[in-house]
Amino acid sequence: MAFHAKDLSVIAYANGFTLWHYTTADAAATVDTAGYFNAAADMLRRGDMILANTDTGGDFVTGMLAVSANDGIEVDVDDLTGVGGTDTD
């Protein structure tokens, strides 16, 4: 699939830092690929963080992405750091 701007929203902004939320049916391995967020290059800045709900149509993986590079054309994010653990009950 591909990035959809309508699924990226601002949670908070302060001191030049933005905390975003993004939801997608795409797998985490797709979302954290360099270039996935290129269409948002004018909004995302290096150091921004994205709370992500990925694979929403399947296994549902939640985590955090850090924007590690943005040259104004290509955006790269670090690999998804998972949030949550095992629910044994």
Kindly name the structural category: mainly beta
Distance between the termini: 34 Å
Q: Estimate what percentage of residues fall within beta strands.
A: 35-45%
- Nearest-angstrom radius of gyration? 13 Å
Low-confidence stretches: none
Give the CA-based shape: globular
Quaternary organization: single chain
Mean pLDDT across the residues is 94
Note the run of SSEs as H and E.
Answer: EEHEEEE
What percent of residues adopt helix (DSSP H or I)?
Answer: under 10%
* Number of contiguous helices: 1
Q: Count of DSSP E strands?
A: 6
| Total separate domains | 1
Summarize the main sheet: 6 strands, mixed
List the keywords:
mainly beta; 6-stranded mixed β-sheet
What is the secondary structure topology, with strand pairs?
Blueprint: E1 8-14, E2 17-23, H1 28-31, E3 49-54, E4 61-70, E5 75-77, E6 81-82
Parallel strand pairs: 2-3
Antiparallel strand pairs: 1-2, 3-4, 4-5, 4-6
